[in-house]
Amino acid sequence: MPNTMFPIFLKMDQIQTLVVGGGNVALEKASAILRNSPEAKLTLVAPFFRPETIEYLQDFPHVRILTRGFQPLDLEGLDLIICATDSPALHAEIKALAAAQHLLCNVADTPPLCDFYLGSIVQKGVLPWIDCSKRGFEDCDFHEWEIAYFGQKNQSLPRRYHP
């Protein structure tokens, strides 16, 4: 089957993003966004938030935290939605609402409901390794590991990897 995915990088400080959820997965998604784009326009909505999530978000006063359940009106003005709760029914509802409004939606750990996938970014020394394959860094082939290894150990790539 041919690859139908097209990798892109988003300017998260220029689009409105909603993360639905307040648990570990929501924290993982929000922190990944904010580590890469500290000025991201981000809102989180959930009936409760883990203390670690609230603590982490204190460093980002521009991030909106709505302590209540998701409401369909939460989708107004959005560009991107990430569902990160433990409720498959809520995820399906949000995905249907998003699709009706032509909004891109990612549902954590549920590829059939995803319009896009979030790649992994691993930082080893000065070389960030971006894996958009959904395989995870552990499954990289030897060539990929070699690039990551040389980037870590020597702080630069060997001459043969430079264009």
Count the beta strands: 7
Distance between the termini: 31 Å
Proportion of residues in β-strands: 15-25%
The backbone outline, from C-alpha atoms, is globular
Order of helices and strands: EHEHEEHEEEH
Helix content: 25-40%
Q: What average pLDDT do the residues reach?
A: 84
Low-confidence residue ranges: 132-155, 157-163
Quaternary structure type: single chain
Q: How would you briefly describe this protein structure?
A:
This protein has 163 residues and is an alpha/beta fold. 28% of the residues lie in helices and 20% in strands.
Descriptive report:
Helix 1 (24-36) runs parallel beside helix 2 (51-57). With 163 residues, this protein is an alpha/beta fold. 22% of the residues are buried. Residues 132-155 and 157-163 have low confidence and may be disordered. The chain has a 5-stranded parallel β-sheet with strand order 3-2-1-4-5, with helices on both faces. Helices cover 28% and strands 20% of the residues. The protein is globular, with a radius of gyration of 18 Å. It has 4 helices and 7 strands. The two termini are 31 Å apart.
What attributes characterize this protein structure?
alpha/beta, 163 residues, five-stranded parallel β-sheet, two-stranded antiparallel ribbon, 28% helix
